[in-house]
Every structure is written in C-alpha cells, then in structure tokens.
C-alpha cells in the first residue's frame, strides 16, 4: 500500500507534467524504516532546452525549468509530530541541523552506472514538510542544503495547496482517490482554494 506522502508527491508531479517512477536503489530493502523513505526519478515531459535553472525553493511555477530529478521523500516529519507545528525559524533550523543535514548526502546516493537518458544529470530535490520562512534562518538552511549537494526543495504544504487549486468540483476523478477526496472536501466547503484563503 502506498504511503500518503508518496501519493501526494506523485500526484503533484504528474499534474505538473512529469513522468514519475520509483527509483530502485542497490541497498537492501528488507528492513525498511522511515529514514529509508522514498526515492523517485521524475522527467519533465514539457521541458524546453535552453530554459533557465529553477530556483532553489520550488513551487509549481518553477517546475517547468526542471528537466529531470531524483526526488527524495523522507519521513523526517513523521518521527516527531511536533515538527509540523514548528513555526519559529530557529526551531526548524535546529531540528534540520541535528536530524537532516547529517543524512541528506546519503539519501541521494544512487548507482552511478544508472543512465537517465538526459544530457544533464538529474537535479537532487528534497521534499520537506516545513521550511523556515524568516531570515536569516531561511538563507542558512538553503546554504547548508546546497553545501550537501541538494539542488532544490519543495514543501508538502505547497504541493497540497497546488492540488487543491487544480481540483474542479464539477469533475469526477475516477483514477485518483486523492483528487476525488479533495473534490469532495471542496464541494462541502471543508477546504478552499489557496487564493480564497489569502483573500479571507
């Protein structure tokens, strides 16, 4: 059974024009833990050569500039439920320093013999539940992740908001339980488009 984070990330990337496949790693999968997480290889089917590099903080508007990527989805938000409620940049940075920065290089290891069929190697994108919004903590996180070889970060919050915005309450989504659930929630005004949230 797919974990919810896999469903959200896959649906989000597919809705934004990517082909998504599970990236098999050479390490044994017998004792799977939250730290093993999920690794996806994604390829942008609407990518145009000569486009600029995407920004480090990835939102839907930036994905068009991403040709291909290894997307690392980790359960580092599942170990401590309090992480999702962290709002202070210093608090988030402290958690990242002690639990993420030490592991992130290992998370992106893959078999160098694997050919991805693109001229440029895939970018390394980390999916994060939260990210500092205040300076200087935001810039410190970006710099430390770049030092570890990470090319970009995308948050679960932005993915879910994007999916909510894309759902049309008049359309039935037979092939996606997630989109069908979001459609139902929007139909009964339990969730609203992010634009409406900003206005309200």
Brief digest:
By secondary structure, the chain is α/β, with parallel strands linked by helices. It is 33% helix and 14% strand.
Question: Could you describe the 3D structure shown?
Answer:
With 200 residues, the chain is of the alpha/beta class. The chain has two domains: 4-166, no CATH class; 169-200, no CATH class. It has seven helices and five strands. The chain has helices at residues 4-15, 89-99, 104-107, 137-147, 156-166, 177-187, 194-199, and strands spanning 18-22, 38-44, 68-73, 123-128, 152-155. Strands 1-2-3-4-5 form a five-stranded mixed beta sheet.
Q: Number of helical runs? A: 7
Count the domains.
Answer: 2
Helix/strand-derived category reads: alpha/beta
The major pleated sheet works out as: 5 strands, mixed
- What radius of gyration results from the CA coordinates? 17 Å
General form: globular
- H-E string: HEEEHHEHEHHH
Order of strands side by side in the largest beta sheet? Answer: 1-2-3-4-5
Task: Set down the secondary structure blueprint.
Layout: H1 4-15, E1 18-22, E2 38-44, E3 68-73, H2 89-99, H3 104-107, E4 123-128, H4 137-147, E5 152-155, H5 156-166, H6 177-187, H7 194-199
Parallel strand pairs: 3-4, 4-5
Antiparallel strand pairs: 1-2, 2-3
Annotation keywords:
five-stranded mixed sheet; 7 helices; alpha/beta; globular; 200 residues
């Amino acid at each position: 059974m797919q974990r919810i984070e896999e469903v959200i990330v896959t649906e989000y990337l597919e809705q934004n024009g990517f082909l998504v496949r599970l990236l098999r790693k050479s390490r044994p999968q017998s004792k799977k833990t939250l730290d093993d997480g999920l690794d996806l290889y994604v390829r942008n089917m609407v990518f145009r050569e000569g486009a600029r590099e995407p920004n480090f903080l990835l939102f839907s508007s930036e994905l068009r500039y991403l040709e291909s990527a290894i997307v690392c989805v980790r359960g580092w938000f599942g170990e401590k439920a309090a992480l999702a409620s962290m709002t202070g940049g210093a608090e988030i940075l402290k958690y990242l320093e002690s639990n993420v920065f030490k592991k992130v290089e290992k998370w992106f290891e893959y078999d160098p013999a694997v050919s991805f069929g693109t001229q440029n190697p895939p970018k390394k994108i980390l999916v994060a539940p939260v990210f500092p919004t205040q300076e200087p903590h935001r810039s410190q996180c970006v710099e430390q992740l770049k030092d570890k070889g990470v090319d970009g970060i995308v948050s679960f919050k932005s993915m879910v908001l994007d999916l909510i915005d894309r759902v049309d309450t008049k359309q039935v989504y037979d092939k996606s339980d997630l989109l069908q659930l979001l459609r139902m929630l929007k139909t009964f005004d339990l969730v609203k488009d992010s634009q409406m949230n900003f206005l309200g």
